[in-house]
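Reopening this ticket.

The earlier resolution said the output was attached, but the attachment link was broken on my side. Pasting everything inline this time so it's all in one place.
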Amino acid sequence: MWNYRFFLILFSSTPPSPEEKFLLIDHHFKNIYLKISNYEIFINGTFFNGALIPALLAISYIYIYPFLAKPVYEHSLKKQKELMSIKQEQENQRLLSVEESRELYRRLAQMQSKHQEEVDHFNNQISSLSLQLENTYKTSSAEISQDYNEIIEEEEPSEDLEQYDKHIEQLLDMRRTGTFRLNQLFGQEDWLKIPPTTRKILGKRFRAQVERGDYVDVTLRGKDAGNMQQYYKE
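Inline output:
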């Protein structure tokens, strides 16, 4: 701080009188005369000490000081790095104490225990998923097998369907005009003698034949209250 004398005089208790303080301040900011060869240069003391020198010092601190301090700072950091490297090397070579060894073993045991818990947890999840997959496979296999058996039964009935077709033609020839169901055409007693699977196949087969026009005097009608397909003979 260039003008520290000004503040020291201003706030000091000595000299006690204001006149003496003013004299000291004026002396501090007195004009400067520089003589170069035969020339004498006048410099205002207030401007020189109050503005010029503080501005030059501030510029030097901002721009010149960092440039001069950089190599010193780099050297200091280099030495600190070397000291840290030496310290780290010494610590690596130092043997662990008994307490440090026990603490290290304790942490290792905790890590192993936690790892085993995670392994057991994931194994349980895998077992559960495997069991679910197995149950799903068994259920799907059973459903597929059931569907396959139904398809086989539909495709390969035990009775000869052509014989039933001929019998239906004979029954239709004897049938009077009016609405009927397939079980009524056979008669309830004869209808129940036919296996359920074959009855189901005959129902689908007869409806398809009627829709195709195999029986010119038979047409489809709606279903009755029991959801049974009805036909009409003209």
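Reporter confirms the inline version is readable. The chain has three domains: 4-81, 101-156, 160-233. Strands lie at 32-36, 39-43, 178-180, 218-223, 229-233.
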